[in-house]
Amino acid sequence: MSRKPKNLLLLAAGAVFGLVLSLATGVLAQKDAPQETLPYAEARLLAEVLERVREEYVEPVDDSVLIESAVRGMVMDLDQHSQYLNCNEYEEVRISTTGNYSGVGLEVHMQDGQVHVVSAIDGTPAQRAGLRFGDIILSINGVDLTDTNYAEAANLMRGKAGTPVELTVSRPNEAEPIDFRLVRNNVQVQSVRHQLLDGDIGYIRISHFSETTWKDTRKAVRRLRREAREDLQGVILDLRNNPGGVLDAAVDISDGFLDGGLIVSASGRGPDASFSHMAREGDILDGVRMAVLVNGGSASSSEILAGALGDNDRAVIVGTQTFGKGSVQTVMPLSSCRAIKLTTSLYFTPDGTSIQGTGITPDLEIERNEALDALAGITAHQTDPGAVLLQSDSQLRAAVDALTDGRIVQSKAPQ
User: Fold this and answer.
1) Parallel, antiparallel, or unpaired: how do β-strands 339-348 and 83-85 relate?
2) Taking residues 185-209, what's their average pLDDT?
3) Given 252, 325, 345, 411, which residue is catalytic?
4) How many angstroms separate the Cα of 212 from the Cα of each of 118, 209, 218, 244, 341?
5) DSSP states along 166-193
6) Any catalytic annotation for residue 325?
7) How many of the other CB atoms lie within 10 Å of CB of 276?
8) Would you say residue 392 has pLDDT above 80?
9) Regarding the domain delimited by 100-188, which CATH topology (the fold level of the hierarchy) does it fall under?
10) Which of 75-89, 90-104, 248-262 is predicted with the least confidence, judged by mean pLDDT?
11) Deepest in the core among 118, 246, 286, 349, taking most CB within 10 A?
């Protein structure tokens, strides 16, 4: 049988597919920007592969599945943070920014083909079960996780409240994998907690950044001032194992504690990808001394906030090296309820330092004694000074000492 008809079909498919991609590029491009069409050879390659799979794969596959898989792979291959979102995944992203969803409360990311835990959010099933930063999720409900199905991880962990989910993780210094059986719950995450420590030292814990975090931080400051016997002598901002979240929330909090100066700048190729945020006059603490606690689980927006307060001499940074996620992801809606989460910018702290891949180095590098913390009931994610001895948390104690011995400058506007 002659192969000519199939070859003609492939050529036609390549031409049509190239036309479609060209039109799509024109739609997405700005009207005043030069439009570039996809090279014919690359468009033909995609059409050829699509046709071969449709005709000769062992089982039939729907065209929409093939196209979605191609798009997912294209975006995922860019970097570990970019992602194609189908309708359900897009809705999950939108829900998570509000701080209310049903699941286990884990923040994860893909690195070297493995799903790493960035943090288990305070008060969630994952945190109560003991999952922590550094764990690597091997499987969820028996489904092995790889870089090819990473996008399914969030869906597998989310679900109806009261339903079980089983996770198998590997943990540094543990010879065998550890199994966890969690029960999903309605995660109505309170991103801000506060406590007044002895000596009128305020403690504010921010577990992640959502749309309500700045409002809740202001409330925490007001309550601490009311609870203090006299004036607040200092405030500790605990960002340990805070994986980030809504960028605007971190910028607003930085602005609230600063009396001026640069908060963060970013550089990218898109029209809105390069920007800078400046602090306005007005410090909600009126210059009360500050310390910021960070560790390897402090990432993204946490690093922006810590960098802004540290570089502007507003606070001393205490703890260990941060995670090093210095990129901005923008969620871009597509047609039919879908979207892509695309890395659009690299951000820089006020002194011009890029955090990507390196993180923030604390002013006071203090390691935690994990064995002592475990005896005191502190998890790797949660520090509650109202429930444990202050002396058992070496980083928290160092922050209190730094506040009380005068090593921190008062808030000041740039000269």
Assistant:
1) antiparallel
2) 86
3) 325
4) 21, 8, 10, 14, 22
5) EEEEE-TT-SS-EEEEEE-EEEE---EE
6) yes
7) 13
8) no
9) Pdz3 Domain (2.30.42)
10) 90-104
11) 118
For 90, the token pair is 């897009």
Q: Which residues pair with 137 in a beta bridge?
A: 115, 169
Select from 116, 157, 149, 150 the least CA-distant residue to 134: 116
pLDDT(95) > 70: no
Measure CA 110 to chain center. Answer: 12
Whole-model pTM: value is 0.67
Are 210 and 243 contacting, i.e. CB atoms less than 8 angstroms apart? Answer: no
β-bridge partners, 347: 266
179 tagged catalytic: no
Q: Tens of pLDDT along 26-72?
A: 333 333 444 556 678 888 898 899 999 999 999 999 998 898 989 98
From the list 210, 300, 345, 411, the catalytic residue is 300
Rounded Cα distance between 111 and 133, Å, is 13
- Active-site position among 259, 311, 373, 393: 311
**Segments making up each domain of the chain, as ranges:** 4-24+35-61, 100-188, 192-328+344-404
Active site annotation includes 363 = no
Q: Do domains 100-188 and 192-328+344-404 have the same CATH topology?
A: no
Cα 345 to Cα 377: distance, rounded to the nearest angstrom: 39
Q: With contact defined as beta carbons under 8 Å apart, do 272 and 266 qualify?
A: no
Which tens digit of pLDDT belongs to each residue from 218-251? 999 999 999 998 899 999 999 998 988 889 999 9
Query: What does the alpha-carbon distance between residue 55 and residue 60 come to, in Å, rounded to a whole number?
Result: 8
Q: Note the pLDDT of residue 185.
A: 85
Residue-wise pLDDT for 137-151, tens only, equals: 999 999 888 766 766
